[in-house]
Amino acid sequence: MKITHSIFILLLISISLSKCSKETIDENSIGDVIIDSVFYDTDIKPLIDANCIGCHSGSNQSAGLDLSTYKLVKFGAEFGTLIKRINDPQFPMPSAGLMTADNRGKFDKWVADGFLEKE
Ligand code: HEC
């Protein structure tokens, strides 16, 4: 009787714990873990072009930030707040809302691998 009781409680605890960690990952600021190598030319530039370039290049360089070349994006990711801001649910970049966890994970992988430019 007692053993059944504690097993039941353990089960309840583990269910609520797993629920908790899942929610944290979903609603927040952690990108997916990406396994394949990520390159600027084939992975990062298309994301920048689709999500950032309109406000961060040419005559519209919001916050003085130009993201139109490999070197500039690398600089922002390495020394600036680029990675922080694309994962910031409160002040996201793009400002309209966070990119998917998959796309944000690609930036993390790109940084972790040392900013590979092309295959
Ligand atoms: C709709 C316009 C718009 C888009 C799209 C946009 N940004 Fe921004 N961004 C801004 C504005 C305006 C600021 C300055 C205000 C602020 O910091 O929120 C800014 C600020 C930033 C900053 C902080 C710069 C600093 O030195 O303080 C970073 C980093 C940044 N953006 C990166 C990005 C990235 C990366 C993308 C695409 C994933 C992106 N932005 C898309 C308008 C935009």
Helices and strands, with pairings:
Elements: H1 2-27, H2 40-51, E1 56-57, E2 60-61, H3 70-78, H4 82-86, H5 101-112
Antiparallel strand pairs: 1-2
Helix pairs in contact: 2-5
The structure holds heme C (HEC).
Heme C binds next to helix 4.
What's a quick, concise take on this entry?
By secondary structure, the chain is mostly helical. Helices cover 54% and strands 3% of the residues. Helix 2 crosses helix 5.
Labels describing this entry:
119 residues; mainly alpha; two-stranded antiparallel ribbon; 5 helices
Anisotropy-based shape: elongated
| Strand numbers in spatial order across the main sheet | 1-2
Rounded to the nearest angstrom, the distance between the terminal CA atoms is 63 Å
Rg over alpha carbons: 19 Å
Order of helices and strands: HHEEHHH
Oligomeric grouping of the chains? single chain
Low-confidence stretches: 19-27
Give the ligands present: heme C
- The share of residues in extended strands comes to under 5%
Number of helices: 5
Average per-residue pLDDT, rounded, comes to: 86
Major sheet size, sense and barrel closure: 2 strands, antiparallel
> Which structural class best describes the helix and strand composition?
mainly alpha
Count all strands and give the number.
2
Portion of residues in helices? Answer: 40-55%
